[in-house]
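Entry 14. Two folds queued back to back today. First construct below, sequence then structure tokens.
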Amino acid sequence: MARPKRQEERRAALIEATYAAGKERGLRSLSLTDVAAAAGLTRGAILYYYEDLDALLVEAHAAGIQRFCEERDAVLAGIDDPRDRLGAAIDAGLPDGPDDALLSLLYEFDVLAGNSALHDELVQKLYLRQLDTYRGVIVAGREAGVFTPGLDDEQLAMTFVALEDAYGLHIVGGNALMTVPKAAAAMRAVAEQLGCPTSS
């Protein structure tokens, strides 16, 4: 019983090493040697768990999406007021800063989507989860009478996801003109103008 658990822990550690090495090197330049160095292992040790770098990247991509979405869902689950929930969704959807390795890699995985059906499917999965999150908040706000948007729920959700991704990309890309507080404030201002205020 101990061996499967140890393998699961080792795979999780390799995924973390992939995020760290990917942030430093970029996905297009990343090699198994880079991941091995970040993990303190040999290339051969990684190949015991993964067939090749592509297999590791697919699992890292899937794990990153799950972590990002589940962590945000957990935050929102404890908030009753849709206005506060929308504000929390905005905050949790933006990177922590330029050094946010997970979100930086998730944005980079978008580049791989055009060359890989598996990555393309994962990019679409993340987009649908982002839409679901915002759509759920919007529906709750409409039903509670605290949101009065002029757009339909789908268009609103798409708008919030587009803003989240655009600002997030500038943040992890190191654009000194875009900070996390500035992006969050802009998204809240847009939300209010669209009839979805983020606070009571």
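Second construct, same run, same settings:
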Amino acid sequence: MSGDIMVNITRAADLLEVGANGAGWTAPLGTTSPGDPAIQPVAPWLPLGAISDDGLVQGFEEDSESFTPWGLTAPIRTSITSSLRTFGLTVWETGRTTVQALQYRLDTADLTPVDGLTSFAETASPLPDRRAFWFVVLDGDNFQRGFYCPEAEITERSDVTHKQDEVAGYEWTITCYPDSAGFTVYHFDRVPETEAYTGS
């Protein structure tokens, strides 16, 4: 009807994120976080190099148990029984020693070439290979997100295809484990301030 008051829909384009760019680094367990996505990580942080245009996938996997009392059809309580945080990406620089070391659970020193030849063998009984990871997602100067995983490891590795019309890459799922404080992922964001809501 004419004369009716319309509801104002609140929208802010600068609060949207398009992950236009980003990168990842790894370091030994115990390495502190760079703490700011605008700061260039330094040693012992080592870069993962080029990442495929699929970007970085931030994974949330949770299971819950619901409790419904006798006589009701809706639960009155739900408990989280499993809460897992992962990051998925495909790294393209398969010749980078940091990347090879992660793929094959090696120390980068094991990849030092002798007379130009690098050689190593894959074990039939791999051991845990926990490291620290730092991921940055950028949307120009508007959005800068940092994710710090103090204890994480690659828990899934996809097949690697070697062919003429495709870049070989290592597709990984990295699982984050709780640190001594019980946290799995630390977030460091430089994002625009959300304006106070005034009802208009």
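Quick look at the second one. The two ends are 21 Å apart (CA to CA). The chain has one helix and eight strands.
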